[in-house]
Amino acid sequence: xxxxxxxxxDNQPSHIRNYIDSPEKLNKLYKxxxxxxxxxxxxxxxxLAAGVIVGALLAQEMLGTGSYAGVPAALFTLGSAAAAFIVxxxxxxxxxxSGLAIGFLTxxxxxxxxxxxxxxxxxxxxxxxxxxxxxxTATNLQARYAGTDLAKPTQRATAVSIAMVSTTVGAxxxxxxxxxxxxxxxxxxxxxxxxPFILAAVAYIIAGLVLLTFLRPDPxxxxxxxxxxxxxxxxxxxxxxxxxxxxxSRGIIVGATIMILTQIVxxxxxxxxxxxxxxxxxxxxxxxxxxxxHIGAMYLPSLVTGYLVDxxxxxxxxxxxxxxxxxxxxxxxxxxxDSMAGLITALALLGLGWNLGLISGTALIVxxxxxxxxxxxxxxxDVWIGLAGASGSALSGIVVAFSSYAILSLVGGFLALLLIPxxxxxxxxxTVKSTRKMPM
Length: 440
Description:
Layout: H1 14-21, H2 23-63, H3 71-94, H4 96-120, H5 123-146, H6 156-176, H7 178-187, H8 195-214, H9 219-232, H10 238-279, H11 284-299, H12 302-311, H13 314-334, H14 340-367, H15 374-402, H16 405-415, H17 419-433
Helix pairs in contact: 1-2, 1-9, 2-3, 2-4, 2-5, 2-6, 2-8, 2-10, 3-4, 3-5, 3-15, 4-5, 4-8, 5-6, 5-15, 6-11, 6-12, 6-14, 7-8, 10-11, 10-13, 10-14, 10-15, 10-16, 10-17, 11-14, 12-13, 12-14, 13-14, 13-16, 13-17
């Protein structure tokens, strides 16, 4: 049921009050929430792989040209941005359960639309369906926040990492099922490149149903109630709260910037890699292997990354993200196009750099927000992340068409270095304007 931010905690139903009053029950709910999120993310990961691997190839086949190969990824990342806004608002109003379930189910419908578009060779339907399919991508990303709702400050990055690493199972399995799903699609009269979208539809719908059925009580509703309880005991600390708000504003800006820059770089290079490989004689299985390893690198290191972000610090890991993304761009530009080992190395580094940036940025956002507005703020930031990805994807095809894949990779790598001055600015501002320590 929706939880009103301004309601009195004393008026909370007993099943919510029990968690407020019992740290033991709260800890059990935290662990249970993580388990449910893990299950949903396994299926969600399988769903997101389709658009990454064959979206550009399907559009190239239907359009008859590679000049607009970046458009499909731009469309589903644009749809992801719109969905992030809606899912964030739904989660703020009704809780994570409703927001995330609706997002995944919508993504499943979009994947089915792509299949029908491929069967009917219908370009407008393909583009519209890719927009809707993006809802699954946005939801898969926003689900990482559900694990942090009840986490302690020193557990937040680790909680994000647990949600993300579970995505690896589905995200790595998806690319390696491209051949199987393609054969299945052909056997039922569907173009082979639409096969992965059949898998995506089933996976997203299952993920949505898991959350809708089992994510009870809603962790975000409980987190709001706990925050209200704490606020009642701090009403006389207005000066301290004002100072916190100033610090939090900076944290939000820096966290968002980290995630936006890493998304632009990752999506731009990743989008054009399948096209680059196909143009140089690699088959679909090899494309699937490279992208599968890339997606694995995006999520599999998460447990280590989360631990390091909590223990070493948010800003240190953000700087590491920029350095790794630069290395990815240099390797992608330098290796021969027929080198599988080189492409695997470049895309693995690209995934790792994105992972470091996303987890450190996410932890900063959670640190810097209050439950009364947290889900809405998270949704808004994910909108900008989605728009950044859409821009990177759309421009990547144009850049490659007028220059080369190597130039695109180098530009992306050096763009990632902007993370360093952003982090330095954050640290300088905090030193000058506040003596309050905050986990960074």
